């Protein structure tokens, strides 16, 4: 039992920090970066990603002994698409407004490389429970970086947080940085976030040497 | 709508897909290969060409599949799976045809074709086409324009990165970091085209 605990802990740290999908692997940013101009949109999108990634990694892992080797990719894509469709249909039914805001980006989770990457790299050769944990924490590691980006973009660009006005930033003294809510802002923010986190990691590595 | 105005609308969509609404720089689609393969111009060129070809063809195929199969059957939610299967099958098919008939072209593009199946820009173009309700003719312009736009962006980035390889860049910023910052600057430059066209 203790053994399993420490292994889970390792998976958590790997997914959230050492092997973080965004700043370590720089994978799968396409479908989500686009919606980081509002924190609320990002939260919904990240939730969809956590759901899809953890469950599809587990499913791939359950089916790993029955899937013929040469059609593996196709099966994985279909499994991922299955979960994405569930998210899409649910959003359309219960939150049509949000579904409209996110547009095609919910569907694009299917081609998000990080999901395929985790299914291939981990789900394919590990038991379901571990694959689920790995997927879950990779997705959470991904979400926390994107939420940081979203918070800064919304705050600087519109002076709000989750739609509520933030004192000072929404006042007359703060010149709103329109650039932050436009596409270049997302690129700059992501570049800066990658820079900061990588530098921290490198500094730690140097110290431990 | 009559034929001529359709054609001019298709042209407007074509131009705006290249410049003002660039699929990479304003919709963030296809970022993974953009960062991964933009290290040298030659590879970027091959991948870019393959993307133009696959994007144009699959968005047309998907248009036909959506309007003649999914819509009459009222199976809209099924489109993700349908599109992905069509794209994967088309890429596989193209690979086989090129390998059979043009070994030289295969040597150039062959490596990039499998990469394209998971390129989100391809699926993204098809999904945008459905959401914006484009007609067949407009879809031709949109698919081709998006492909060319993506091609332009990756070529420009590869050129810049080749120059950068001799520059001194802070350690944490090397690789993806600096690529993203440059992409931001490029996106800024492309925003300058807004206003040239008032079409969507």
Major sheet of chain A: 2 strands, antiparallel
| Protein chains sharing the most extensive interface | A-B, 45 and 43 residues
Largest sheet of chain B: none
The SSE order of chain B reads HHHHHHHHH
- Per DSSP, what share of the residues of chain A sits in E-state strands of 2 or more residues? under 5%
How many domain regions of chain A?
1
The helix/strand order of chain A is: HHHHHHHEEHH
Tally the beta strands of chain A. 2
* Helicity range of chain A: 55-70%
Net shape of chain A:
globular
- What average pLDDT do the residues of chain A reach? 82
What count of structural domains of chain B? 1
- Determine the oligomeric state from the structure: heterodimer
In total, the number of strands of chain B is: 0
Q: Span between N and C termini of chain B?
A: 17 Å
- Uncertain stretches of 5 or more adjacent residues of chain B: none
How far is it from the N-terminal to the C-terminal residue of chain A, by CA? 32 Å
| Protein structure class of chain B | mainly alpha
Can you offer a commentary on this structure?
With about 210 residues, chain A is an all-alpha fold. Chain A has one domain. Chain A is built from 9 helices and 2 strands, in the order αααααααββαα. Chain A has helices at about 1-20, 30-35, 40-60, 70-95, 95-100, 115-120, 130-160, 180, 185-209, and strands spanning about 160, 165. Chain A has a two-stranded antiparallel ribbon. In chain A, helix 3 (about 40-60) packs antiparallel against helix 7 (about 130-160) and helix 7 (about 130-160) packs across helix 9 (about 185-209). By secondary structure, chain B is mainly alpha-helical. Chain B has one domain. Chain B has helices at about 5-20, 30-35, 40-75, 80-100, 105-110, 115, 120-130, 135-165, 175-190. In chain B, helix 4 packs across helix 5 (about 105-110) and helix 8 (about 135-165) packs across helix 9 (about 175-190). Chain B is globular, with a radius of gyration of 18 Å. The mean pLDDT of chain B is about 85. Chains A and B meet through helix 2, helix 4 and helix 9 of A and helix 2, helix 4, helix 7 and helix 9 of B.
